[in-house]
């Protein structure tokens, strides 16, 4: 077991790039030790190595883990607790998106999105509850404005995010007596690699991953008595249609 500079640690899913990696970077700067996960071992190890190189004294672990596998997630969280002595922040970020009219949406794509975006979130939280309860920890679920605003071609994605919002609200009610805070973050357009998109200068108007990371740090620094339970985040000046 290693001791972090702050004594705090965070476990972040889907964090080899994009929002997850930006959150990890921000928390490392705040003195947290972090475990980041991805399905791809080479990518997540490289991302963790980058965090260590960027910040003197940083402690970061990269673990290959598919959030659809509850047993693998539990092992990853248990290993994190063993490495860092506990768990303070659980950032539920892993997600996928396949978009098609319901008539053309494949059963495989439906299953992948529901299992990853919704069941995977449940498995992640289940894996961390015991450790979080010991620290009075904080759970963040990364949802989307698509969790309240349906759009054509978003059948499975909308369903998964509507479900995640509902789960997040129940988590808040079920876990607050354990001293665990829960906040659902619901961004609009974010400049990430999600859905096969490649960020570019044309994304300058969008929310940046670093913006969500700053929001996360700000929420962690809120007074203990106060909980912003749902945060909707939009680009301040989207292009005119």
TrEMBL record:
Pfam families: adh_short
Residues covered by the Ketoreductase domain: 8-193
GO molecular function terms listed in the Swiss-Prot or TrEMBL record: oxidoreductase activity
Family, per entry: Belongs to the short-chain dehydrogenases/reductases (SDR) family.
InterPro entries: KR_dom, NAD(P)-bd_dom_sf, SDR_fam
Highest taxon of the lineage: Bacteria
Keywords: Oxidoreductase
Gene source species: Deinococcus deserti (strain DSM 17065 / CIP 109153 / LMG 22923 / VCD115)
The protein's name in its UniProt record: Putative short-chain dehydrogenase/reductase
């Amino acid at each position: 077991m290693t001791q972090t500079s702050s004594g705090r640690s965070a476990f972040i899913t889907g964090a080899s790039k994009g929002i997850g990696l930006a959150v990890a970077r921000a928390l490392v700067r705040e003195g947290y030790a972090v475990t980041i996960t991805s399905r791809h071992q080479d990518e997540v190890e490289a991302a963790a190595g980058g965090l260590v190189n960027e910040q003197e004294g940083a402690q970061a672990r990269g673990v290959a883990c598919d959030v659809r596998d509850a047993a693998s997630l539990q092992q990853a969280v248990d290993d994190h607790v063993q490495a860092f002595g506990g768990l303070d922040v659980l950032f539920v970020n892993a997600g996928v998106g396949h978009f098609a009219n319901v008539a053309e949406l494949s059963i495989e794509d439906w299953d992948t999105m529901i299992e990853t975006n919704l069941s995977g979130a449940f498995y992640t939280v289940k894996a961390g509850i015991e450790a979080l309860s010991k620290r009075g920890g904080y759970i963040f679920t990364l949802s989307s404005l698509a969790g309240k605003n349906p759009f054509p071609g978003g059948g499975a994605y909308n369903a998964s995010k509507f479900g995640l919002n509902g789960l997040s609200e129940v988590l808040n009610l079920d876990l607050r007596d354990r001293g665990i805070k829960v906040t659902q973050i619901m961004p609009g357009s974010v400049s990430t690699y999600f859905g096969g998109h490649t960020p570019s200068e044309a994304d300058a108007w969008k929310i940046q991953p670093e913006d969500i990371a700053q929001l996360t740090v700000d929420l962690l620094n809120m007074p203990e008595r106060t909980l912003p339970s749902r945060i909707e985040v939009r680009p301040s000046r989207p292009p005119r249609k």
